[in-house]
Amino acid sequence: MTNFFVREACDDDAMVLRRLIDTATQQLRCIYRPRKKKDTQQTMPAITLVAVDDEIVVATAEYVVQDDRLYIQGIAVHPNHRQRGFCRSLLAAVEQLAIDAELCAVVLCVIEETGNVGIFEKMGFMVMSHTTSVDYMSPTGGPVTQVEMGRKLP
Fold it and tell me: N or C: which end of the chain has fewer CB within 10 A?
């Protein structure tokens, strides 16, 4: 990370974000994929942050406020930029936004079969629940386990 910062995404980021998310999730599609949704309406508009390194968007996080907590509904880091602190920096920025808004926790969900539970535990998140996902399934149509994780804020 030479010239690195986190900022809110802008309209000009739309195409690069689509490519970033597609690239970042490509490996995961052999483990799970989204189910087709009937209702795509979202009650609250999501806010997207991007991590920029040397003028290149390398990671993104999307969140919404739900009651007294901030829910991260998506986070993606380009495979060529993983394990370099970008996810941790995005999570820190989201956490600061939640603290500034006087929220009590930051929450996210991961699919257990990806192995990402341990990664988020190392970043201070604790497992809150395990459920069979209604939004995602294995590539063969079988169930996958959704793990809700959270971190309480000061």
Answer: C
Helix/strand/coil percentages in the chain, nearest 5: 30, 40, 30
C-alpha 17 chain-centroid distance: 13
Contact 90, 72 (CB under 8 A): no
Over 70: is that where the pLDDT of 43 sits? no
Positive or negative, the Cα torsion across 131, 32, 136, 149? positive
Does this model's pTM top 0.85? My answer is yes
Tell me how crowded residue 15 is: count the other CB atoms within 10 A of its CB. Answer: 8
How far apart CA 101 and CA 92 sit, in angstroms, is: 14
Over 80: is that where the pLDDT of 42 sits?
no
Let me know if domain 4-34+43-152 sits in CATH 3.40.50.10330.
no
> pLDDT of 141-153, one tens digit each?
999 999 999 999 9
Q: How far apart are CA 65 and CA 139, in angstroms?
A: 31
Q: At which residue do the structure tokens 């988020």 appear?
A: 120
What is the sign of the dihedral through the CA atoms of 35, 145, 30 and 123? positive
Sorted by where each begins, the domain ranges of the chain are 4-34+43-152
